[in-house]
Design goal:
By secondary structure, this protein is of the alpha+beta class. The chain has three domains: 191 residues, no CATH class; 88 residues; 120 residues, Heat Shock Protein 90. 25% of the residues are buried. Helices cover 69% and strands 8% of the residues. It has a five-stranded mixed sheet, covered by helices on one side.
Length: 424
């Protein structure tokens, strides 16, 4: 096992050294072309922009720089490892003419152009140092063999330094070995220097993450809005379909019961049972409809829906709403706030032992703020039961927050805050 590990390490070392050397030596040739084209096209574009031709030349310069930037990213990733992602500006919605000029508004493409210019001296440095290091290493190790074929200099460096001729060969070999041993770290450092320049100018991980975050936020807002529309459609379908049929069936059962022979006790009992079941089913349908999206919320807005919910509460509830709170909001926001209010009133009625409750609705700092305050026994928190915890999860879907302040024997205050940009 140690031998296998050692062999793998040697293989990895040789592979890394080979890639570093290839990167340092080859980058100069692509760099020369990229530098020449970038400087030439940019200078020509700037000088002719006054006659509009320069705009198209600048576009050519940016596209050319992007081409070489993509090549540099691929080479750097091959030699030194995966680079952070790169984000380019998305095409502008509109005419083809507007989309054609998108690169001029894309900061990353201008960074590609800058990289083509500023990376050139770094590439020259990497190439020159790598070649010099290899030549010195190989030349020093083998100088004893080929030096005899060179013309004898009148005064050499060894003579100037006063080195004894018997030690010169060993010094040359030692110097060559020193350069050979230090070649891997030097070549690695030069490769990482070029990589750092590529990462700084050819990648924009933060912008890519920001773009992905915006995309996910937009996608989530679309899903939330679609869910709200679907729930409203379900509520309408229940109201216009099964609920109306249940009402009609109740009426028919009532009519059949009135026409029934009073002596037919068995049939009367059967009709009474059917009527009880249909009334229960109708009540469940109405409760389900209200829990999805009550008609008053859709037709008259959040404040009216909360007024209706407060009127159904077993304990007295005072509803207060500012003028801004009477506005209409996005469907997802209204539904989240409505269910937060209803759930808070339900919890207060079930668990608080309160004699009175106050519900306040306001708009502050681009947030819809809802507070439910009861005078009950307190002691409520998010970790107890599933009502408040489930409500917090539901509010998270619209970036809303839920806080509970419920000291023992001092009542409970449930506060909900929902950003108005959600679902926009």
């Amino acid at each position: 096992m140690p031998q296998t590990t050692s062999r793998r390490n040697r293989t990895d070392f040789r592979r890394r050294l080979g890639r570093d050397l290839a990167y340092n030596l080859s980058a100069l040739f692509t760099g020369i072309i990229a530098f020449t084209l970038a400087v030439s096209l940019f200078s020509l574009g700037i000088s002719t922009v006054i006659i509009y031709l320069g705009v198209f030349i600048l576009l050519g310069a940016l596209y050319t720089a992007t081409f070489f930037a993509d090549a540099e990213r691929r080479i750097a990733a091959w030699a030194t490892g995966q680079l952070p992602p790169t984000y380019y500006r998305r095409p502008t919605a509109g005419s083809a003419m507007l989309r054609m000029f998108d690169p001029l508004r894309d900061g990353q493409r201008w960074k590609d152009l800058i990289h083509a210019v500023v990376s050139f001296p770094v590439r020259v440095l990497a190439f020159s140092v790598t070649i010099s290091w290899i030549a010195t290493a190989l030349g020093g190790i083998t100088q004893w063999m080929w030096e005899r074929y060179l013309p004898e200099p009148s005064v050499g460096l060894s003579d100037i330094l006063g080195i004894d001729p018997g030690y010169r060969v060993w010094i040359q070999v030692g110097l060559g070995l020193a350069f050979l041993i230090t070649l891997p770290p030097v070549s690695r450092g030069l490769a990482l220097l070029q990589r750092s320049l590529a990462v700084g100018l050819l990648t924009n991980e933060r912008q890519a993450m920001r773009e992905e975050t915006d995309r996910l936020a937009t996608s989530r807002s679309s899903v939330i809005a679609a869910e709200a529309d679907t729930l409203r459609k379900i509520e309408r379908d229940i109201h216009d379909g099964p609920q109306q049929r249940m009402v009609r069936m109740n009426m028919d059962l009532e009519a059949a019961k009135r026409r029934l022979d009073p002596q037919d006790a068995a049939t009367k009992e059967l009709l009474d049972s059917a009527l009880e079941q249909s009334r229960g089913a109708l009540a469940e349908l109405r409760a389900l409809s209200r829990s999805i999206a009550p008609p008053v919320l859709v037709d008259r807005g959040l404040v009216s829906a909360l007024d209706a919910a407060a009127a159904r509460s077993p304990i007295p509830v005072i509803v207060e709403a500012t003028d801004q709170a009477h506005s209409r909001f996005a469907a997802a926001i209204e539904q989240a706030a409505y269910f937060a209010g209803v759930e808070s009133l339900t919890n207060a009625a079930k668990h608080s032992g309160a004699a009175a409750c106050r519900l306040r609705l306001d708009v502050a700092e681009d947030h819809l703020v809802l507070q439910v305050h009861d005078d009950g026994v307190g002691g409520a928190h998010l970790g107890k039961g599933t009502g408040l915890a489930g409500l917090a999860d539901r509010l998270a879907g619209v970036d809303g927050t839920l806080t509970v302040d419920s000291p023992e024997n001092a009542g409970t205050v449930v506060s909900v805050s929902i950003p108005l940009r959600t679902g926009g």
